[in-house]
Structure formats: C-alpha cells, structure tokens
Amino acid sequence: MMGEQAVLVGAIWAGALLLWLGFLLFYDGFRRPLTRAEIDAFLGTLGDRMEETGNDSARLRAFLEDDDGREFVMVNLVRTRPGQVTDPASGETRAGSEWLRRYSDPFVRGLIARGGHPLYVGAKVGGYIDAWNTPADPGWSLVGTMRYRSRRDLIRMAADPAFRAVHPNKTLGIETTFSFPTQRQIAFYASPRVTVGLGLALAAALAHIALLTWA
To answer: What is the pTM for the complete model shown?
Structure first.
C-alpha cells in the first residue's frame, strides 16, 4: 500500500509540474523574433489604413523590426465619445462607451487566447496633477495596460478577420487615443507565471494531504 501511495503522490506532483510547464509554454511562447517576410506580409495588408488614421507606418515597421521575441505591455490612453453615437453604416445608435465595449470585449478575449491579458484598466478621476510641456488634457476617460506575449501576436490579432470585423466599433466609441509599447523594468506584482504555479502547487498539496488522510 505504501508503494502505491508513493506512486500516487509522485503522480500528483508530476502532474502539477507538467501543467505548470504547459502553461509557461503557452504564456511565454517560443520567443522567436519576427522575420522580415512576416513584417512585409502584415504591413502589406494594411494598405493606407495607418496614414488615414494619422499614424506612421514607418514607426510601426521600426517597432516590428526591432522585435526581440519577448513580451511587451501596451499603454493606452482613451477619450470615449460623449453622448449617443450613430453608426453611419447601420444607422444603429449607442452610447460611445457601449460602442467601445463592443470592441474591447472581443479584443480582450482574443488577447487572452494568445497568452496576453489586461494588466490594469482604470477610469480617470481628475485632471493632470503634474504635467510639463505637454498639450492640454483632451479629456481622457480611461487608461489601460495590455500585456502581449509577443509582437507576432500583435500582428496576428491585427490581421485576424474577426478582429477587423469589430474594429469599426473602436472608431465609433473612441474620440481620441494614443498607445505606445513598453517593456517592464520594475513591477511589484506576481505575474501569472507565479500565481498559476502557486495555485497548482496548492492544489497538489491539498490532494497530497487528502491522500494521506484517506490512506
């Protein structure tokens, strides 16, 4: 009996370890930098979209070509459209915040499916407290930080037909925005690597204790 119990205990902890390693593989990916062919193919699908929205495709290309395969966090500041907004294509009218939600919900689901997730989303509760040589506050509504597993995941999301189908909701819901990518230098929080590992270790420990109790 003791030998069987030892085998079961080993299986419990080995299973927890394998689940954690599988999660790490999903969460971190293979960390392969983008190739020039991947970048060219993606930018070729954008056409004039970058310039039409006042963005610089050369800046995007530089970011993609500088890929190190690692995760990054996109910082987003958003001013939602006030009041009711009518979709010129469908004639449907909704609040600007509702249009934004119809974009952000599918976006977040797609992000999670690719190993990313929101880190922090908050509503603005005051004007600029400390600002040097910056334009006047346009009336930001929200700030959000989104973790991407890699720049490859960013372009795959942007090229996904399902994502492009809901993208018009973003322009209906957002009046002003800017976003820029960052990489962590200091962070005082436990990443999912740690929390998932601890959760699996706790589950394995409880199963171990239960096995000893029932033996």
So the answer is: 0.90
